[in-house]
Structure formats: structure tokens, C-alpha cells
Amino acid sequence: MSVIRTVVAGVGSYLPARVVTNDDMSKIVDTTDEWIVERTGIHQRHIAAEGEMTSHLALAAAREAIADAGIDVQEIDTIILATTTPDYTFPATATTVQAELGLHHGAAFDVQAVCSGFVYALTIADTFVKTGQSKVALVIGAETFSRLLDWTDRTTCVLFGDGAGAVVVRGETGEGTNADRGILTAHLHSDGRYKDKLYVDGGPSSTQSTGHVRMEGREVFRHAVVNIAEAINESLEATGLKADDIDWFVPHQANKRILDGTARRIGLPPEKVVMTVGEQGNTSAASVPLALDKAVKDGRIKKNDLVLLEAMGGGFTWGSLLFRF
Ligand code: ACO
Prior knowledge:
By secondary structure, the protein is an alpha/beta fold. It is 32% helix and 26% strand. It has helices at 22-25, 33-40, 54-69, 93-100, 117-130, 154-157, 217-239, 256-266, 277-280, 287-297; strands spanning 3-14, 19-21, 44-46, 78-82, 107-111, 136-143, 163-174, 182-190, 198-200, 213-215, 248-251, 306-313, 317-324. A five-stranded mixed beta sheet has the order 1-7-6-4-5, sandwiched between helices. Helix 3 (54-69) packs across helix 4 (93-100) and helix 7 packs parallel to helix 8 (256-266). Residues 31, 35-36, 39-40, 115, 154-155, 158-159, 198, 215, 217-218, 220-221, 224, 252, 254-255, 282, 312-313 line the site of acetyl coenzyme *A (ACO).
């Protein structure tokens, strides 16, 4: 049976030039390299320069993905940008990217699902492509998360970084089997009962200010391992595939301990896990496409490999997506 599959045609990424090490962090808050590495696996993070905004990061990643896909930019009819740190409250940062790319047609909008944003955005793009709403979509995860940090709170400020990743996806005809290239299945979840476990204490409607990240780290950790494993099992059950079939696991990069725990739970060996949290920290919606781009560029992920994405973030929101590259 012939079906439309949403195929990843190009990948790109961008990291701000400035690197902040754990030793640098220890000059800002009462922390040590040893504590951060042991609890999180993070060694350093990239932080955007003054005046460098989310749209700048997004645009750089998008340009790379468009070049990698080898398409004419005018073929793009949809831009979906996942971010928690838009340039402005409105308009959507996606429209700034659209204008900078010289596009005046199609639709551009932001998606807000915090760290799960890219998995949400890619799932929306898949639905658009499969229903004929879109032929070629640009999906971006971009964050200047450092702007939301309380730089006096050592329990949160050491965890996050800035960056952007992007993919170009397009509809291609498949056979309707797991051997098809493209997105095979996707599963999204949220549960607003936990919204106060990880949130930003400001916003236009509540405080008329931006606010800072607040988090109950242990609670987030506990839910993350369980929710992520459940969402992954959903993807496997929906396709009838097994953990052994997965070539690469490209998870949201929150914390090395969460990733190790998740991989163990679903029975994936560590060498199949793409890990960037050590060099980049948690870049929220940017972390999955940044990790994907790295593993494609360094030759690990090859055409036809089966790739599993997952993410979990504030809300809580979480989800998984399985695709053949
Ligand atoms: N440096 C030194 N000490 C610290 C630091 C720091 N940066 N941060 C906290 N501590 C101290 C605490 O004050 C506490 O001290 P106390 O015992 O004297 O009170 C001690 O270390 C232990 O603190 P815990 O919060 O219990 O430490 P824990 O082992 O839970 O690790 C961490 C904290 C790393 C935040 C962990 O809970 C975690 O990773 N949680 C997941 C959160 C996460 O990844 N969030 C990202 C967003 S959500 C997502 O992306 C999935």
C-alpha cells in the first residue's frame, strides 16, 4: 500500500561561540566541576552573545539544513520553530526566520512545549505532510535558554545552554512498511498536574516580565525516566519493532544520568546513544536536533538507519518519534 512518508532531507545546527566551563560556573555560583559532572555529565555549555537572539541561532541552523537538503529555499512551505525563548512575546520567531530566508508564502509559527518542543514540532510537520498541508517543511529547535536562568541559583543555572538545530523534511512515497524511509510513528503526551515542578515564574499575563526557571530537580528526574521509557515503548509497540532494531537513540539531552537510566530501561547499549550533554548542557528544544546533526555529520547515522527520538520537559510534556533516516 503506497503512503506518504515525511522524510528528513537535511540537517543543520548552530552553537554560539562563547563556551562556559564548569570552572567558569564555579566563579558565578557555589559549585564545582566535580559536582556538576557527577550529577549531570555536563562539562561545558555554549552561551549566546549579547544581542544574539533565538532567531539568529535558528537562522544559522536553518541555512545549514537547507544547504544539506540541496533544495531551493522557495520550496519550503511551512516553518515550525520550537522555542521557549522567543525573540519577542509576539510575533512568532518563526516569522522572523521566514522573512530572513526571503519567504513570503506558506505558514510559519512557533511551538511551545519546552524541552519536548522539537519532538512536538516534528510530529506536527509529519501530520502536515501526510495530510497534504505541506510538501517541504523546515522544523527548528532554537533556544537562548541562558536568558531565563537565575544566575544566583546553582541548582538550575549549571544545567542549561544555548543553541539551535534544524531539519528539512519532505513528503515521499513509501510502501507503508517499517522499511520505508521517513517518520514511522510519533507519540506525544502532556500532564499539566505537574506544571509547578518545572516552570518559569513570569510571563506577559501574570507578571508582565520574563521570569526565571524554577525546578524541583528530583521530581523531574523521577518522572523523566518513567515517562520517557513509556513513550518509547509506545513507539515500538505501534510499529512492532524491537529495541534491538534501533540503530541510534537521539534523546533530549537533559542529564547523562537520565539518558543512561532510560537506555538501560529499554535495553539499548550505551554505544547506540548519541550524547551531547557533556559539551552542550541542556539546550531545551534545541538539544534533539543538535544531537541528530552531530551524529549525521560525524558519520554515525547513515541513510536507512532507524533512529529513535525522545524528549521530556516542563508541563510536563513528553513524547517519542521513530524514523528511518
Ligand atoms: N553545585 C553544588 N551543589 C549543588 C548544586 C550545584 N550546582 N546544585 C545543588 N546542589 C546541592 C543541593 O543544595 C543539595 O545540598 P544539601 O544536601 O546540602 O541540601 C545537594 O547538592 C543535593 O541536591 P539535589 O537537588 O538533591 O541533587 P540531585 O542529586 O537530585 O541532583 C539535579 C540535582 C542534577 C538537578 C538532578 O535532580 C536532576 O538532574 N534532575 C533532573 C532535572 C533536569 O534535568 N531538568 C532539566 C529540565 S527537564 C528535562 O529536560 C527533562
